Amino acid sequence: MLNFRSALLLLSTALFVSVSAADTLVVEDPYVREVPPGSPTTAAFMTLHNKSDEAIRLIEAENKVTEHTELHNHVVIDGVMEMRQVEAIEIPANGETQLAPGGLHLMLIGLNSALSAGDTLTLNLVFDNGEQIELEAPVRSMMPMHHAPAGDE
Q1: Which of 43, 65, 75, 136 lies at a C-alpha separation of 20 to 30 Å from 122?
Q2: Is residue 132 within 8 Å of 124, Cβ to Cβ?
Q3: What stretches in the chain show pLDDT beneath 70?
């Protein structure tokens, strides 16, 4: 009976730790950029908040609409902006990291179907602390709305 109680205590402690760990990361304003039909790639953006006292790294992202997803950053080399794959994206302790156009982002490569404004894409984010977050990211149009100059119709 003692072994059963010990096992039960250990299991309940492990479950408590898992639930508590889920509160350390918060994802804010996730979205995917709409692209023209036939375009093989797009990007996802969001803000990642880390409420823990230790830095956490995003190490992988997955979805079911593309062949693969990579972590990317834009860097300036010799005055030219280039996009580079990165191994991980760090979210500082008690801080945040923005994934935004022109900076860090998720590169969604090999689209299997068109993504139009109003659609949603399920993303699974994997972190180096073992935590995973599944979220729904709406697809947003990045095209500016056309406004006719005053007097034109």
Answers
A1: 75
A2: yes
A3: 1-22, 143-153
Tell me: the pLDDT tens digits for 107-121?
999 999 889 999 999
- Structural domains in the chain, sorted by start: 22-140 (2.60.40.1890)
Do the Cβ atoms of 127 and 54 come closer than 8 Å?
no
In the block, tokens 């979220």 appear at 135
Q: Are 91 and 26 in contact (CB under 8 A)?
A: no
Q: Which residues pair with 105 in a beta bridge?
A: 72
Question: In this structure, which amino acid lies at residue 64?
Answer: K
Residue with tokens 């009976």, as numbered in its chain: 1
Cβ burial of 138 (10 Å; 0-12, 13-18, 19+) is middle
Q: What are phi and psi of 92, to 5 degrees?
A: -65, 155
